[in-house]
Amino acid sequence: MNKNRKIEVWVGLFMAMGFAALFYLAMQVSNLGTAYTGETFDVTARFDNIGGLKVKAPVTIAGVEVGRVIGISYDPQDFRAVVKMGLQSRYLHKIPDDSFAKILTAGLLGEQYVGLDPGGSETTLGNGSEITVTQSALVLEDVIGQFIFGKGQEGKQ
Amino acid sequence: MSLAEDIFNEPPLVKIRGLRFRRGSRWIFDGLDVDIPRGSVTAIMGPSGTGKTTLLKLIGGQLRPDEGTIEVDGENVHALSTHDLYRLRMRMGMLFQSGALLTDISVFENVAFPLREHTRLTESMIRKLVLLKLEAVGLRGARDLMPSELSGGMARRVALARAIALDPMMIMYDEPFTGQDPISMGVLVQLIRRLNDAARITSVVVSHDVGETLEIADLVYVISDGRVVESGTPAKLTESGGEWTRQFIHGLADGPVPFHYPAPVLEEDILEAAR
Amino acid sequence: MISLLAQLGDWGIHGLVRLGRAHLLLLPLLRGLLDILRRPRLLLDQVYSVGVLTILIIGVAGLFVGMVLGLQGYYILSRFGGETALGLMVAASLVRELGPVLTALLFAGRAGSALTAEIGLMKATEQLSGLEMMAVNPEYRVLAPRFFAGLLSVPLLAAMFSCLGVLGGWMVGGGMLGVDQGAFWNGMQNGIDFREDIINGVIKSVVFGFVCTWIAIFQGYDCVPTSEGVSRATTRTVVHSSLAVLGLDFVLTALMFS
Prior knowledge:
The complex is a heterotrimer. Chain A folds into two domains: 1-30; 40-145, no CATH class. Helix content of chain A is 29%, strand content 32%. Chain A contains two helices and eight strands; from the N terminus they run H-E-E-E-E-E-E-E-E-H. The radius of gyration of chain A is 24 Å and the shape is elongated. In chain B, helix 4 (107-118) runs parallel beside helix 6 and helix 7 runs parallel beside helix 8 (210-216). In chain B, the strands form two sheets. Chain B has a six-stranded mixed β-sheet with strand order 6-7-8-3-9-10, sandwiched between helices. Chain C is built from ten helices and no strands. Chain C is 88% helix and 0% strand. By secondary structure, chain C is an all-alpha fold. Chain B binds chain C through residues 57, 60, 62, 86-87, 89-90, 92-94, 96-98, 100-103, 113-114, 117-118, 159, 162, and chain C through 122, 125-127, 129-137.
């Protein structure tokens, strides 16, 4: 029966190691350990150009993640992109409704995200509110075009 | 065909009628009729390659005949459902040529295997039964050895102990004497006879070892070219058997089974090669 | 010329017939789960021989693959000033692709070939026939436990591979090459999504485990019961499993990560 014992122990160890590895991958390697799983409230914002913004991109205030982009759509009536964001419910009625929403890029080649600059209004964002002050994403071609145009102007002078 | 009934006055345990079985384009059996009487030792003999092992597999339901029927204890083997076939097999024991022991478990475990699979006996009951079966074949002391540590003869004896574990009504022996030294052969011969007499287990021995087989058989069938060439008691066959039977039994080099494989005339062949 | 075509056709038909037999084997394999539930000991013994004995090769391979990823990744990324993305690169490569695929390939080579050889030898020595004559169905008793053992073991082994790979990459990146620890782990955690990456990786390894074990068992069960037949079957297991894994990987990746 000694051989049987040995097999049982090893198989038990094997299963434990396997699940421990899976657990480690889930907690330490993926975003599960840091992901927010609580209640959220919806806020929308309209942009002329969202650039490369994707669903699930973070929404930050002062660099801290306060929510995620949950939906992106196009409104054919006013020709702008409508970005729906899910913000963590602990910030419900804590963000002024004249806050400034910008689309920024993380690092030089990073992914794009939404950054909120708080305003000074007394009224705050609730469920379904809309942020009216927005700045679109930086489009590389426009910047280069401006640069060349600017250089051209300098040249003339 | 009622030879069995003449001798033993009971319906045969195994009744084969009109068996035809083909492998590829070759008919292994072409109209075979065999009766195996209950409680007898019946031998099926013939040259190598006549499909004797195939016959055992047909009886056990592992192969299906192309034509004909095989009845075991009144049940048509190939008409049974899988479940009923398995129940029939529990009453049949088979001793393979190589023993076919499970190589990863000990002798004890091998003999206990059918008991563990098919009965709900307690461990202590199983232990007693296994030891008794091993005692019957004289290998109780070898119970903790592994199959790889056994000689060929010992492996066959363990396989025999395993085959009788569930007290079957019939045991089929596939070439039990092939490649054995005289002592092992003697042991096996004695065991087969003893099992048959003591427990009234019907024994079907498939073999081409004439001496040993004729020693223990009650009834012999000689098969060639897929049919029964002759059948009868060993005495009858030895004394008044047909030409073919005589060649087989006495091991004559030439006779109905020719020495020369068919070939063109010798002179022609040699002169051909020289050109 | 004609005979070549005839041979090709013959080969094709035989291939189809074998494919059909392989699929027919699936039913008893799955049905064998009932027997296993009644007798868990069968599964336990097989998980030992198929899973536990593969840990060593998987562990060592995972570690070294991760270390190499760390090295190569660093050299390329540092050209663009992107060393901080090393953690994400190593983890993504492992969890999404290298973990499931390399584990499956190593498994097919080590455990798959062993399974084929074992079952083929059991067939050649008439043990399977013997079981049948003892009224024990070898498909439930011998094949099914091995199948489920493989199905269970491969995902766990793949997780271990990825884990050790990440640690290997960290050792090389953080320890040897001086990549910032915070950047390494944070970049990784921000970039690797549990559902998209980890779960998909696990799904891949389950599929690979299913296919590799199935192929190994079928080749052993279906082989010509001679020593040459067993040897050919073993080779076929490794080749077919590898091709299947790589092909399925493409299909799954396209489905999951498009």
